[in-house]
């Protein structure tokens, strides 16, 4: 409950929080893919 109040104070709805978490997951995935591709490219 307290967390929900904090979120509403900073203006984030439950949906926005979920989208933000998903976006962070996607960013982490892309960063790891970029590192993998860079390693593969260097080993050519």
From TrEMBL:
Tree of life domain: Bacteria
Source organism: Christensenella massiliensis
Name of this chain's protein: Uncharacterized protein
